[in-house]
Write a structure and sequence with these properties.
This protein has about 300 residues and is mainly alpha-helical. About 65% of the residues lie in helices and about 5% in strands. The chain has a two-stranded antiparallel sheet. Pfam families: PPR (PF01535). Keywords: Repeat.
């Protein structure tokens, strides 16, 4: 009788097919049991640009503009046109660099543009604008901004704003307005610091108001302790030794700067010496390549082949 038997080759093939089918699939399937295609994101750039480089470009863009309002606002709008969100951190860093370079007009332009966009309406940005207006000599606009901030934030106005306005009026000899700001400060219960008391007391002495000067010193006696920040740490110092501490701190900062300059000069000298040494190495490599080419040409002319 005939018997049907499967050959071993067929069995092995069937086993192989079964093993292959049990391997995990590398294609990602979605809920519809179909392959999900992977497309590259068009809006995501390969090069990542940080806020520091963006702020530098922002500063360069602002410095190259004129003082026309429409041109400045149009250039700044085009700079942030492709941003998904308003680059507040970039603008803040740019304002910080402009403040270090004392570009007061540019600070006023950028801050007003930022506020017109409804962004950065904080006490820090208002104080930056107030300081820039005072430094640029635009006292009328500074007083308007001060009146607006004072009327909107009576109960939560920081002391630094009072200090700034009193220093502005003190430097310009506007004593009456200075006394008004100091009276508002006392009515709101804001305790003046040492600089405000010294400016107001100096004006009392200049005007011959000795009784008011004595009352001011009795009401606000000089503090026995002062606080300073040294390398990020808060240090308490006696008021008597404050001048000595400030002088010593300045000397230490100057010595640190000189040490950093010397270290940078030494690094540049060592780097130049290293570059002089490296400049000769490419020539040596080129000579070696030339020798190798000559040897290969000689081998081809002799008819020698390497298998």
């Amino acid at each position: 009788m005939l018997s049907l038997r499967s050959s071993p080759a067929i069995v092995t093939r069937r086993l192989e097919t079964i093993i292959i089918s049990r391997k995990p699939n590398s294609v990602i399937t979605c809920a519809a049991k179909g392959p999900r295609p992977r497309y590259p994101r068009v809006w995501k750039a390969n090069k990542k640009i940080g806020t520091i480089s963006k702020s530098k470009k922002f500063v360069e863009c602002v410095k190259g503009l004129s003082n026309v309002k429409e041109e400045v606002y149009g250039a700044l709008d085009s700079f942030i046109a492709w941003e998904l969100e308003f680059p507040l951190i970039t603008v803040k860093k740019a304002l910080k660099t402009l403040e270090e370079e004392k570009e007061w007009k540019r600070i006023i332009q950028v801050t007003k543009w930022m506020l017109s966009k409804g962004q950065g309406r904080t006490m820090g940005s208002y104080f930056t604008l107030l300081n820039a207006l005072a430094q640029d000599g635009r006292l009328g606009e500074a007083e308007e901004l001060w009146a607006k901030i004072f009327s909107e934030n009576l109960e939560a106005l920081p002391r630094i704003f009072f200090n700034k306005m009193i220093s502005i009026y003190y430097s310009r000899g506007m004593h009456e307005k200075m006394f008004e700001v100091f009276a508002d400060m006392e009515e709101l219960g804001v305790r003046p610091n040492v600089s405000i008391i010294s400016m107001v007391g100096d004006v009392f002495q200049k005007l011959g108001m000795q009784d008011k000067y004595e009352k001011l010193n009795k009401k606000y006696p000089p503090p026995t302790w002062e606080y300073r920040y040294v390398k990020g740490k808060r240090v308490r110092i006696r008021a008597k030794n404050l001048k000595e501490f400030d002088e010593a701190h300045k000397r230490s900062n100057e010595s640190d700067k000189e040490a950093n300059k010397l270290s940078s000069e030494e690094f540049s000298e060592n780097n130049n010496e290293h570059l002089d040494e490296v400049d000769g190495e490419p020539n040596k490599l080129l000579n070696k390549f030339d020798e190798a080419d000559q040897y290969s040409n000689e081998v081809e002319e002799a008819g020698i082949s390497f298998s």
